[in-house]
Amino acid sequence: MRRALLTLGGTVAGLAALLSFKSHPLAAQTPAPSRPPTPAGTSPAATSGTGSGSAAAAARKTATAAPKASAAAAAARTVTGTVVNTQRGPMQVQVTLVGTKITKVTVLQQTDDGPESDQIDATAIPQLTSETLAAQSARIDAVSGASYTSSGYIQSLQSALDQANG
Question: How confident is the model over 21-34, as pLDDT tens digits?
Answer without folding.
Answer: 655 454 444 444 44
